[in-house]
């Protein structure tokens, strides 16, 4: 092989650069880091339970929110009944954020970690941001 | 030694034939793949948020007795209070309607326009000068035959079957502005710019819109759902605005339509507006 040394050196440099994110995090000690979410709940008696079991919410909350959106906007169907018969208004900014009132420490933690940027907040308002005076 | 060219072409031909064979075999195979889309379901807990909801249309109010919301505007009374903007302010504050400094960016749900401009087909050159120059209160007419709905490519605007409201789904609007062109009443506005910085005081109970979305009056569907009257009707201290159900023979709107001569904007177009004016 002509110029074998140069080629192999080049390949090694290439591999180091392309795997930069992996070893950089490993060196920094961030490799195993997981988002730490704070489940902020308001002390509302009888409402300390989510509309669906936590593991379902963890995996499917985005579908639930989309489903609520379509039912409310397109079918004027605004009430959600849980399996044990409790009723909730289908509202992201009220029902969801009423309990999970800390969007920064709850929603954003995972969303930032997995690199998703939900466009809900382009229009929907986080009431707590206004209470805090942040616009 | 290896594959010669002749053999290579043969194998390539056979392989190509093999590739084309797959679709017909699939077509005639007895096994029909009718797998339900379970990708979104959580099999572990055996619950699925994506399954269609069991909605009783009657119970949910989707198919209650037909309702046809309408509004009667008493222009005679409204005209006396030319500077009053209570209804406009109430509406625009409730719905986070932005107030852009430049007229060309204007977004409006309910507004005042000179009578002779709004009702040019009944305008009379030698008619009552005062009437012609008086302001008329305008808003979305919630037409029975809405041209904006016909042109919307995404059904972001549609006529609600149960009560005739011409609704807007801002999630679905792609900002093509066909509806702006189709609406003969100028009831629709486009957000050419990000509206948020131009909203004086944000009402946290209602979303804002984003840049590139069309908006208009929705007869306060969110308030009607709570059993409230539209914000403009509530705000008018002179009682110029009457809101009610045309299907209900005893409603106030029917009574007014019976006892007064009313006009509608551009009736010749056949859009059948649901906003009536007592002149």
What's the gist of this structure?
Chain A is mainly alpha-helical. Helix content of chain A is 53%, strand content 4%. Chain A has helices at residues 4-18, 20-28, 54-75, 92-99, 107-114, 120-123, 127-131; strands at 79-81, 87-89.
What features would you describe in this structure?
The complex is a heterodimer of chains A (135) and B (279). Chain A has seven helices and two strands; from the N terminus they run αααββαααα. Chain A is elongated and about 75 Å long. Helix content of chain A is 53%, strand content 4%. The mean pLDDT of chain A is 85. In chain A, β1 (79-81) and β2 (87-89) form a beta hairpin. Chain A is mainly α. Chain B contains ten helices and ten strands. In chain B, the strands form four sheets. Chain B has a four-stranded mixed beta sheet with strand order 8-1-10-9. The N and C termini of chain B lie far apart (100 Å). The model of chain B is unreliable at 32-48 and 55-63 (pLDDT under 50). With 279 residues, chain B is α+β, with helices and mostly antiparallel strands. Chain B has a single domain (69-278), classed as 2-Layer Sandwich (Alpha-Beta Plaits). The chains are: A mainly alpha (135), B alpha+beta (279).
- The value of Rg of chain B in angstroms is 28 Å
Outline of chain B: elongated
The description of the largest β-sheet of chain A is:
2 strands, antiparallel
The oligomeric status of these chains comes to heterodimer
Helical/strand content category of chain A: mainly alpha
Which percent bin holds the helix content of chain B? Answer: 25-40%
For the biggest sheet of chain B, the summary is: 4 strands, mixed
Count the DSSP helices of chain A: 7
Query: Major sheet of chain B: order of its strands?
Result: 8-1-10-9
Largest interface chains and counts: A-B, 26 and 29 residues
Helical content class of chain A: 40-55%
What is the succession of H and E elements of chain A?
A: HHHEEHHHH
The CATH architecture of chain B can be named as 2-Layer Sandwich
Mean pLDDT of chain B: 87
How many beta-strand segments of chain B? 10
Count of the domains of chain A: 2
Write down the secondary-structure element order of chain B. Answer: HEHHEHHEHEEHEEHHEHEE
